[in-house]
Amino acid sequence: MLRIEQDARGIATLTLDRPAQKNALSAELVGRLTAALGALAGDRSVRVVLLKGAGDVFCAGADINDMRTAGVATQDANEADSRRFAGMLAKLEAQPQPTVAVVHGAAYGGAIGLIAACDIAIAGDSARFALSEVRLGLIPAMISPYVIRAIGTRQAHRWFLTGEAMDAATAERIGLAHEAVPDAALAGAVTKVVDALLAGGPLAQAEIKQLLRRVTGRGSATDESMLTDTARWIARVRAGDEGREGLTAFLERRKPRWIPGE
Q1: Contact between residue 131 and residue 149 where contact means Cβ atoms under 8 Å apart
Q2: In what order do the strands lie in the sheet containing 48-53?
Q3: Which residues of the chain have pLDDT under 70?
Q4: Cα distances (angstroms) measured from residue 170 to each of 45, 53, 147, 175
Q5: Distance between CA atoms of 128 and 58, rounded to whole angstroms?
Q6: 149-185 pLDDT per residue, tens
Q7: For residue 140, how many other CB atoms are within 10 A of its CB?
Q8: Do the beta carbons of residue 49 and residue 14 sit within 8 Å?
Q9: What is the architecture of the domain spanning 2-197?
Q10: Other Cβ atoms within 10 Å of 28 Cβ, number
């Protein structure tokens, strides 16, 4: 249901592994993914988390049978089921390591939430994306904060309301994917991004992710509270072990120790 692999460089790969069900997000898979993200978050040997789908698709979205069951459950049970999915997205978004969605084939409904909650998304040209909830008489409620942050409100109006499918090039154009490449070049594109991520300080990357959440949506960049907050932040990071190592390595014309093999 969920394959977890880690290589010597600290690249953890989470593969949704229900190919016969198009990797649909059943309640059990959501639970396993949530638990796996939690375990990886505390593992200092993990540098990057990749999210993939087994077989010929990335993910077909929520499991329809689970959705039907939840729909006839009590209000409390229905809401609890939704909260578990929302909690998984929140954990993915807050993962301290950089996260990369590697997308091929269909990515529908809730799968778009997974992609938008990742830091980086790379799509092969076979990828097809759709916020298809409206075609089922539903709404993309839990994934909406992540998707709107990725594509903006104006684009969300079209794609939420129509449920149309889009290709990888369109997903890249509107900001859902950072890069769209031929399927044959997908692995190489992912390797290039991973190499770039491994060159950065892991503690700095975790801090950057928190920084992005803190400053997004705040007022003027010259607001006094913003100035104070960010000045204190860089001062703390600069004085830390990793910050001192990075500056020293630069001055000594060597690679910092966090790069694998250094």
Answers
A1: no
A2: 2-6, 11-16, 48-53, 99-103, 120-124, 179-181
A3: 70-73, 218-222, 262
A4: 36, 21, 14, 9
A5: 9
A6: 999 999 999 999 999 999 999 999 999 999 999 999 9
A7: 22
A8: yes
A9: Alpha-Beta Complex (3.90)
A10: 13
Amino acid at 51: L
Report how far residue 97's alpha carbon sits from residue 102's, in angstroms, rounded to the nearest whole number.
Answer: 16
Report residue 62 as tokens. Answer: 């929520």
- Per residue, the 3-state secondary structure of the chain, as one string, reads CEEEEECCCCEEEEEECCHHHCCCECHHHHHHHHHHHHHHHCCCCCCEEEEEECCCCCECCECHHHHHHHHCCCHHHHHHHHHHHHHHHHHHHCCCCCEEEEECCEEECHHHHHHHHCCEEEEECCCEEECHHHHHCCCCCCCHHHHHHHHCHHHHHHHHHHCCEEEHHHHHHHCCCCEEECHHHHHHHHHHHHHHHHCCCHHHHHHHHHHHHHHCCCCCCCCHHHHHHHHHHHHHHHCCHHHHHHHHHHHCCCCCCCCCCC
Structure tokens at 198: 């491994």
Every domain of the chain with CATH number 3.90.226.10 lies at 2-197
Assigned token pair, 151: 């594509």
pTM over 0.70: yes
Structure tokens at 158: 């079209």
